[in-house]
Amino acid sequence: MSKYVSGFFKNLGGRYKRIRLRCKGKPLPEYYESKVERLKELENLSENGKIDLFYGDESHVCSEGYVPYGWQFPDEQVCILSEKAHRINCFGMINRQSKCFWSTTEQSINAQFILEYFENFSFEIHKETFVILDNASVHRAKIIRERMPYWQKRGLFIFFLPPYSPHLNIAETIWRKLKKEWLDPEDYFDKDSLFYATNRCLANLGTNLVVRYSKFNIN
After folding, report:
1. CB-based burial of residue 161 (10 Å sphere; 0-12 exposed, 13-18 middle, 19+ buried)?
2. 72 contacts: CB under 8 Å, gap ≥ 6
3. What is the CB-side half-sphere exposure of residue 99 using CA atoms within 13 A?
4. In the predicted structure, residue 97 carries a pLDDT above the cut 90
5. What b-and-e string marks burial along 187-206, b requiring 16 or more CB atoms within 10 Å of the CB?
6. Contact yes or no for 117/89 (Cβ under 8 A)
7. What integer pLDDT is reported at residue 79 of this predicted model?
8. Is there a contact between 23 and 164 (Cβ–Cβ < 8 Å)?
9. For 124-163, what is each residue's pLDDT tens digit?
10. Average pLDDT, the chain
């Protein structure tokens, strides 16, 4: 039955693809379109080697892994040993070639963390560099906005996505792959194992681990 259903949808021009989560709210159409047009310009400049372009985002992994189902055999007790959950916060920036800059911490990723991260990063760039961020409060905090003119003098520019537009941020793919593909069940055994495994995965991103991005395209 399933092959007939898939064939039916294919004949109608449908494609079987991942359904993305999107915010309930919507940005103002004109503002959204102007932001997308500017983002297209940045993508074209990056593709032609005129600038470096990265997408940034933060997330976390937790030692209390979520594994709701698994294969079990008769007389076998399958369980996950429970302990106090330890949270590892991550901030990462990636481009379409999977070049990645990242940092992990057990502390909160707040505005001060973002400030210090970009302050250090602004001294490492070799050409004009744009970083795409969402509108999280830690990205738009007063201390960030006050420091941005100094970063711009060094060639570092922050570009904010329109509100309610997480689908425009390719950096979110890092965390989906990290949690669902790259980390193994045994990595969640304790805090040290998870911290090591998380840093190992991020360090291998761009070499042994690659995210294959397509060209910028908004459907």
Report:
1. buried
2. 78
3. 6
4. yes
5. bbbebeebbebbeebbeebb
6. no
7. 62
8. yes
9. 999 999 999 999 999 999 999 999 999 999 999 999 999 9
10. 87
Work out the number of other CB atoms within 10 angstroms of the CB of residue 47.
13
Helix (H, G, I), strand (E, B) or coil at 193: helix
In Å, what is the CA distance from 179 to each residue of 59, 67, 86, 172, 182?
10, 11, 15, 11, 6
The Cα–Cα gap between 212 and 14 comes to: 22
Instruction: Look up residue 177 and give its two tokens.
Output: 């792959």
Kind plus residue range of the DSSP H or E element containing 119: helix 111-121
Query: Residue 142: how many CB atoms within 10 A of its CB?
Result: 8
Domains of the chain (ranges; CATH) run: 50-63+84-212 (3.30.420.10)
Q: At what angle do helices 142-153 and 111-121 cross, to 10 degrees?
A: 0
Location of structure tokens 């021009």: 13
Token pair for residue 60? 């976390």
- Tokens in use for 126? 């070799």
